[in-house]
Write the structure tokens for this entry.
Amino acid sequence: MPRYSGFFRINLGRLFLAAPFFLFLLVFWATPLGEGLLLSLESDTLWGEPSFVGFKHYKELLQDSRYWHSVANTSVFALCTITFSIGLALLFAHGIRLSLKGLQGPLAFALVVPGLCPPTVLALLFLLVFHGKEGLLNRWLIEPLGFGTVNWLSDPNFIMPAIVIQAVWRWTGFMTFFLLCALNARPRDVLDAAAIDGVNIWQRFYKITLPLISPTITFCLIYLLVDCFAQFAGSYVLFGGSGGANDSGLLLVTYAYQKAFVGGGFGSGAAVSLSILPWLAGMLILVTLVPRYLWKGARM
Amino acid sequence: MALGSFKSNIEIFNTRVFWPNEWTGHYFGILFSGEYLNFERTLFNSIGISISQGIGATVLAAMAGYIIGTYQFRGRMTLVTLGCMVVLIPAQMVALPLFVWVNALGLFDNPLGVALPGMVSGLGLLFFARVFRLVPKELIEVARMEGASEWRTFLSVFPLVRPFLIAFGFAHFVLAWHAHVIPMLILHSEEARTLPISLAALYGSSLNSPQAVLMAGSTIGMIPLITLFAMAYPQLKSALQEFVAS
């Protein structure tokens, strides 16, 4: 059997195995994407035939201050969520490895449970946590520390921290689980050799562990980033589909939803949805290239 | 949250109360009585949609991933790139046109309208392409040499990748259970709604929303997920560790 064969000379068996996936992809992913592109080039007519308007919606978006606001919000949201949840996950993963053998399984298990909670339900729970006067966060953390109560969901300054806390709460457990597996899979001999040679803990972490687990971290980064940019449920429930006070919690997907279903403009809504892509790609390059640049000097 | 399902509205909002005053199953009764929502129906919808998505996505991605992972052919990189694109453009981003398109297909308000689009997983394709590369080449070669059909060969390596199948199936099940935008747009009637949508709608329905019933619903909604997670946990761990080590 030739190892290299042309795509169209594939025998039927192979085609049969590979085709269903790509068929689904074509019907339920590529078609809507293409349709979205077309939709974004059409006028916002609710009834009757929409007319072709070219890049009008995109041009309007460029001058739309709410749009830029939502871009900035989404970027801040994504960066904060990624930084905190991966940072915490690294800490937790190390903590779990230091704990008793018998405790490691249950601890990892318990950490993942918040991530199993649907974001919608989580947002409902967080309504209690963030509640203006009586919320858990105010009662148990802010007031005992001697600060005045924070109205998390209506004070524009605290809306972004609120949704970041929610996302971090949700994802940290999963990321810990991934990183724990990566840490457990490190080759022991390298670490032992470094320890014997008198490399201190910090150097071992920075120069050996991090490069070893960097593929997993990259995976976590990409996963979180895509999820943050597609985030909808959390802020939808917290703010009932609006952007919150002063639009401080307006994310790109929420804005697209508003444009299409509240404003009645499917064309401009689709334009907002599709305009997420370049931002996402940009952020992706940023979060994958910056660590590489940082660690260029650290490689042994 | 589990505690909350035993409290009254007043107690829930008074966060100084940690344990409910009276342990009462009252709110679970209300939940199942169908006063606020048809709970059995929504739970059943959620389970049905999520399981079919989990299994469907795993099977489709495993089959395609097997071909991509074990063969070299022209156009292979194109397919892999396509997989990456699907990862980068998740369904939520194309939710709007997807909604229009599903309507055009006549699947509006139909569980299939949510389940079928949910079976496309770019991450799954990339994951399984890599997983099947971990399977010893000799094994596949032997099977092919013996004249086993492609389908037979695929089935014969299935037991080897079982933990990976379970791990991915579970992860996809959870994502499907969590989905919000697409079910919200496509499933309109109350009979077709999934659990997160119903609970969110119940919350938004009135100012005096029945918090305890919400909590009870959320608690019960977690049970399938936690049970499945407990069952899949060992497989999940071994699969991840093996995957990361490779």
Observations:
- Chain A has a mean pLDDT of 78.
- Chain A touches chain B through 82 residues (CB under 8 Å).
- The beta strands of chain A are 4-5.
- The CA atoms of residues 44 and 265 of chain A lie 5 Å apart.
